[in-house]
Structure formats: C-alpha cells, structure tokens
Specification:
Strand order of the largest sheet: 1-9-8-5-4-2-3
Bound molecules: pyridoxal-5'-phosphate
CATH class of the largest domain: Alpha Beta
Distance between the termini: 40 Å
CATH superfamily of the largest domain: Type I PLP-dependent aspartate aminotransferase-like (Major domain)
CATH topology of the largest domain: Aspartate Aminotransferase, domain 2
Largest sheet: 7 strands, mixed
Oligomer: single chain
Helix content: 25-40%
Number of helices: 11
Order of helices and strands: HHEHEHEHEHEEEEEHEEHEEEHHEH
Structural class: alpha/beta
C-alpha cells in the first residue's frame, strides 16, 4: 500500500525561484487596478427568501413538508428527471444514491479530479474507488482512461459534473452499457446544466445535488437526488427516513437524512431566480472566455461537446512554462490588484491522505490531475458581476501576466 510519505513531493513550477521585481504590481507596493475588490461570490439572501423562511418559522411546521415537496416538484422537471428527493446535504445525497446501486467490495470508477465527497461516500459505502484521470481541456473525467481501468469487479461509475460542466455523458453511458455498470452523476455544482438539450437529471441511474451555502442554488445546507426509476426512488425515500412505510413501521434500516421546511422554503424562493441567475453566469463565462483567451499563457476552460455548463465556477489556468511565477504567486498578485481567486483543488484526490489505501502508484496513473492542481484558479463568478468588475479582472490579469511572463 502506498503511503502519503512515500509519494513524490509536489514540484514547484519551473522558474518560480526567479520572480521578477515588478515594482508596478500592487503586491510590490504599486497602485492596484482597483482598491475595491471584485466580490468573489454573491450569496446574500433576498428579502423574499427571508420572508419565505419566516413564514415557515411562524407556521410552527418546521419538519420536511410542503416546502420540501414543492422544491421536489419544481426541481424534477427542471432537471429533466421523473423523481426528485430533497435531503439534508449533497453528501447525504451521494450516500442515498450509492447505497442501492452498488455493494460493499465493488470497484467504482471515480474522478481523481473532483471534490472529496464524490469519492469519500464510495468509501463510506464500502466500495473501492478506482481513480480515473481528467481531460486536460474540460477537466472532466476522461472516459478513455476509465475504460482502461475497468476490472472484473467494476460495478459502477460515479462521475462529477465538475465546476457545473457536464461530463461526456454519451461516453459514460456507452461504457456503462458495455460493462453493465450503474451510473451516478454528482451534480452538486451543476444545477440546470444541460446535455444534448436535456436536463442532466435525464441521464444515468441517479443524479445528486448540493444546496450548500455557496452553490448556484444555496439554502445553507441541503441536497437532492433525482432519478427516473420508480423502484429506486422508493428505495431512496425509505433510506432517507428510517425505512418507514407507515407511522413507526420500518420496512428496513435507514437514516434521518431529511431536509426541513425552512430550508425548503429558502430553496423554493431562490429557485424563482435560478434560471435568470444561471443565464448571467453563462454570460459572465463568455466574457471571461474572451478575456482569458486573449492573454498569452492563460487558458480558458473548454466545455464538453453537447453540454451547457451552469458555471458554478469559472476555472482558468496558467501555462506554467509561460510564466516566471507559480500559480499561487500569480493569484497572490491578482488579489493585491483587487481580484480574489480560489483554487479548486490544490491536490488531486489521489494525493489525499484519506484515500492512501486505494492509491498504489502515488497518483502516477492520473498525470493530468497532477498537473491541473498547479494550474487552475477560479475567477469571481456570480450573477452580480458588472462591466466594471469585468474591466478590473481583465486589467489585473493583463498586468500580472505581463509582469510575470517568461
Ligand atoms: C462535487 C461535490 N460533490 C459533493 C459535495 C457535497 O455537498 P454538501 O457540501 O452539500 O454535502 C460538494 C460540495 O461542496 C461538491 O462540490
């Protein structure tokens, strides 16, 4: 078994030791592009959201009830699915989807390049995660690599629609059909994304969502599963609520992973604006694409053919061979100019100590993910970006890129 200590160290970017003096950069005492930072995200509730939550509080009926049902009834058709089931959070959603779809000891193909929950819940279920690399341009799971990593014990694929961009669903479904695999899509970041004109809930065995405080549809904590199979929907509902089929009659063992109606009310209220806000995210991404692609050494993200992203995050990359700085130094300089950024993610899951028991090669079989972690950075992305914000981002990117270019 490979241990964290035995793995090769993370190499610094070439040239990082020879950072130019660049006195004009704000990080070195120069004048910043903007003294008011561009807001990185916009999570504030509207008065309507607060009123909706207060109405539930005043009703005294706080448990999962009409507001959760309303959220489910509205989200199912928007997602392109027959059934939608709310739950406590996106991690519970994964657990509820995984439990009926594969068994302990099964191999499950998972992305090396995603948030931990997609994979940690495979482990919690007793599955063996088999890490699959990412595509360099879309950063989504590489299905050619997945095909190479199929074993006699592979029973499922758990693929994340990362950053809001659907994966190559045709390729996932084709591989699944060839090998009789179950498919779970983690759409925690991808509400309202589409693939070949359909909502992403139309594909696979089950799709999971998160309504965490920073997600496109944010209720604080919250989650949902969609599926198209009646029997699976029933099973998930049973697992969600102690296997209860009648009052105090429990058909099977389950959990309490229910949402509550305060959360449901906030979700319904925010859902009123989700389509308009998603359109603004897509418009912002188009503007960023133009800005980023015009700066030598910076790389704009590509979208999977046939997919329309929900742009939970806009992830640009630096080509380390074109700069004398590391990605982190680049981002520090951007922040000083008034443009905050974030890194999703600083390491691939193959380098997470939590998964060391399942990684035999130190991550060597996922070389693209090993590179992405040194290159990616998220630009501010939300529905409230203004012309002035885009101008600040563009000027700051150009200024820092020019100062640090190799
Ligand atoms: C891809 C992905 N999967 C799962 C989750 C887990 O969702 P939650 O935080 O609601 O448990 C998240 C949340 O950050 C996520 O980004």
């Amino acid at each position: 078994m490979a241990t964290a200590a035995a793995r090769p160290p993370v190499a610094p970017a070439a040239g990082s030791e020879s950072l130019p003096a660049a006195p004009g950069l704000a990080i070195n005492g120069g004048t910043p592009v903007s003294r008011t930072p561009v807001p990185f995200m916009q999570t504030a509730l509207a008065q309507a959201d607060i009123d909706a939550a207060v109405a539930v509080l005043k009703s005294g009926m706080l448990r999962a009830w009409k507001k959760c049902e309303e959220l489910e009834a509205r989200m199912a058709p928007l997602s392109g699915a027959r059934h939608a089931m709310t739950c406590a959070n996106g991690t519970c959603a994964l657990q509820l989807a995984y439990e009926p779809l594969f068994e302990r000891g099964d191999d499950v193909l998972v992305p090396a390049w995603t948030y931990i929950a997609t994979v940690s819940m495979v482990v919690a279920r007793g599955g063996n995660p088999v890490f699959v690399d990412a595509l360099p341009d879309t950063m989504q799971i590489d299905m050619a690599d997945a095909a190479r990593k199929i074993t006699a014990r592979t029973r499922a694929i758990a693929a994340t629609h990362l950053y809001g961009c659907p994966v190559d669903i045709d390729a996932v479904q084709a591989l699944a059909a060839r090998h009789g695999l179950r498919v779970i899509y983690d759409a925690a970041q991808a509400h309202l994304a589409t693939y070949r004109g359909k909502g992403i809930g139309a594909f696979g065995d089950a799709v999971t969502y998160s309504f965490y405080a920073t997600k496109n549809l944010a209720t604080g904590e919250g989650g949902m599963i969609t599926c198209n199979d009646d029997a699976l929907a029933r099973q998930i509902k049973l697992l969600r609520s102690h296997g209860e089929t009648d009052k105090y009659l429990h058909e099977q063992v389950g959990y309490n992973y229910r949402m509550n109606d305060i959360t449901g009310a906030i979700g319904c209220s925010r859902l009123d604006r989700l389509e308009a806000e998603t359109k603004k995210r897509r418009d912002a991404a188009a503007r960023y694409d133009a800005i980023v692609s015009a700066i030598p050494g910076l790389i704009a993200p590509k979208t999977t053919p046939g997919a329309v992203s929900a742009y939970h995050l806009y992830i640009a990359r630096i080509d380390p061979s074109r700069f004398l700085c590391t990605r982190d130094q680049f981002c520090d300089a951007l922040r000083a100019e008034g443009v905050p950024t974030a890194v999703h993610y600083p390491r691939p899951l193959t380098r997470q100590p939590a998964f060391s028991a399942f990684v035999k090669d130190g991550g060597a079989s996922c070389p693209v993910s090993e590179k992405l972690c040194h290159q990616v950075f998220a630009l501010p992305m939300h529905h409230g970006l203004t012309d002035e914000h885009f101008a600040t981002v563009e000027a700051a990117l150009r200024k820092v890129a020019d100062a640090y270019r190799a």
